[in-house]
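Predict both folds.
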Amino acid sequence: MYTPQFKSTGLKDVLSFYSTPLVQAATANMNNSSSSTLVTSQPPIPTITTTTTTTNNINNIENITPKKNMKENHFSNGPLTDVKNIQQQQQQSSSSENSSDNDDDEKNLKVLHGSSPTSSPNFKSPKNKTLKIKRVKSIVNHLPAIKSMDDVVKLQEEITENRDKISNLQQQLSTVQKEKTTIEEEKINLIKQLKELEDKQKSTEDKEKETKQLLIESENKLNLTIESLHQEFDSKISTITNEHTINENKNHQEIFSLKDQLSILQSKNQQSLQQLEKIQKENQEKSISIQNDKLLIEKLESDLKNSNQNNLEINSTLDSTQDTLKSVSKDLFFSTCLSIKLNLLMISKPCNLSTQDLWEQAEASQISSSNYAKWISLKLNEYHNDLPPSSPMKSIYTNKTTTTTTTTTTSNNLSKSPKRNGKKK
């Protein structure tokens, strides 16, 4: 029994082997058998497919078959090929094979090279072509020795398995990139909301200042009006009392003087009575004006109370806006922490730190929202620097656990954080 042995020089020897041993087997069968059929069964010509997938596209599968040698030797695919013709054609093609060896080497290198991972956008391909050729030659030299069709089948199965693994990794990468884009969009939206809330806060503060100034001006005006009313009231009372005293003195003098002149004084008394009635009317009018002034003072006091109530309402709206601003800043902190953790996880640097603990530390140190990303990245880098070097299996396990913990913690914290209300009071 003929047992072929292969040198580990690559796929070219395998392909050249499958062209010659078939002829030897056919001649051996012709000497032993008397029938006209020389070769009854041919082993299937192996097809070695090399496929590599990139992030941009999956390149077409390139088949390596010994069709070129079959065409050069004018072999027919039928089982009844004449052995003498085959031997003559082999001798003729042996001279041409030596010249085409270099071409076959280059073609095999191109086929094996295919669409290598260097075509991916993340890989920086070298500009020098000789480096590429040397790298591919080293890959070909390190290929395993193929001794039978089972090895070819195993190699093909390994290629398909690697292709499936690469496609799965690409799908995972695309999902992670989509999650990253969604998180960045949420971050942009939160930053916009923060800016809007800051603008609202500024506007409310300006309104509060304006209202305070208006209240101060109104209080000053009220004080001035009250002082002026008090002065008028005092002046009017003083004039009335003076007039009353003068009138009484006059009356007494008239009484003493009118004892002798009763007839004359009666008429004068009537005149004085008329004057008294006039004075009483004037007093009534003055009392009415005083009552009106009192009513005006009460109205002004009620206006002052209303203005104080409005001031309290403005203070309550300010407190509510501060609460919403705090909740929005908390959401921003959690989203930035999640995005940084995902980026570190993409670089295979998982982190088990709790985002709630980081948030409490940030509140304690009073870090502004613009410095959240820097502060979180510093804390995570300190955490990674303090960690001891771990085994690769442990790192894979921690990657899985950190992804689950980060997602659960962020979801819990976001559910605990108060909802933003856009209602105006």
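Second protein follows, with its predicted structure tokens after the sequence.
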Amino acid sequence: MLSTVECYNAWSNTYDSDGNILQLLDNDAFNEIVQPYLNDNYQNSTIPICCELGCGTGRNTIKILNAGWST
């Protein structure tokens, strides 16, 4: 049985790549849930702010910034 560290080290090779099925699911969830919220709540007169907790590699932060929000 692998230790926790060994498991994370093995997963890190594909964590932020197309080889990680969870990334695909995460992208789908972001596009279906978060992106519509960002679009619906963006007001051109102000720059909306989002508190991004930084619990990953920043993949979603980039999407939030590209939607015109500040983090």
